Amino acid sequence: MEKKTCLYEKHVALGALMQPFGGFIMPIQYTNITDEHNAVRQHCGVFDVSHMGEVTVKGPDAERYVNHIFTNDIKDAPIGKIFYGMMCYEDGGTVDDLLVYKMDDNDFFLVINAANIDKDVEWMKSHLEGFDVEFANRSEDYGQLAVQGPEAEQVVEEVLGIGCKELTFYTAKFADVEGETIIISRTGYTGEDGFEIYASHKFINANWDKLMESGRCKPCGLGCRDTLRFEVGLPLYGDELSKDITPVMAGLSMFCKLDKPEFIGKEALAEQKANGPEKKLVGIELQDRAIPRHGYKILAEGKEIGEVTTGYHTISTDKSVCMALIDAKYGKLGTELEVQIRKKTFPGIVVKKRFYDKHYKK
Predict the structure, then answer these.
(1) Most buried one in 52, 72, 292, 301, CB count within 10 A?
(2) How many domains does the chain fold into?
């Protein structure tokens, strides 16, 4: 039985196309993916991301515990700083990718992927022994809005009345608004400037209404959330990361701090980094307008060397491109490969995974 977010009725009333995603019934699009995608790239779009999971870790050993399960290094971070990274199994495979917010000394707020909430929480709980922390799964308590695009700052300040312009990229704060303490961060999954707001279901509903009534931002579904994140080379768990795809394979070693003390999966990741992974995630640009889709085979010299993880004809750059996990020896930029689309093969070339430049506010 799929769950519904606190905004489900609002999406239905707007005529959104609703489909299952990550255990929830979510809006895929309202008008069409291209319009919504362009609204975020050029103006402002708002997403219901209330399906995401939230976990809090507090107490004397909170920092030590989070650093033990997380690949990035949060030690001695300033309050308000946010870190991206992974949780890994001992063999280096990825449990999930996530954001860690340092909200106060010994107070961390972790944001995990919707489809992984139950699995992640169980895995995190299984590593609590020996740490003096209060651990809580708060996923049912929070709704979440993502306001994204070059006009997002003005919209959040002027339409919602939430002060945000002092926040720099990847920082967060508590804010007292309408009698409630909310969390607002300068983060997103689109490659554009933007904010994510975590609050009660009631607050999220009221503020969704304000955004819709303002006429200053477009409601956006998960369809364009995927095209936006893909164009700027951001990974999606289940496609570019999984229990079989390590952060090193995915080209995310910069978020794995191998010089910090022990963390789960460190040895496997260090070995893979030192010796080079067998498989590597690359970008491929096709010389044709055919669209490579998830699972399509990649060939080199007539033999199968990997498969597509995500592929689109990009909206912002008008090119047929994909990310693919392939044998590492073919992963050099400029390598010529072929993508099998149904019964035909199309020539492609290895390019950077970022197909469009990010526009974050520095």
Answers:
(1) 292
(2) 2
Q: Each residue of 288-341: pLDDT tens digit?
A: 899 999 999 999 999 999 999 999 999 999 999 999 999 999 999 999 999 999
CATH number of the domain that 326 lies in? Answer: 2.40.30.110
285 found inside a domain: yes
Tokens for 88, please give them. 């890994």
pLDDT at residue 209 above 80? yes
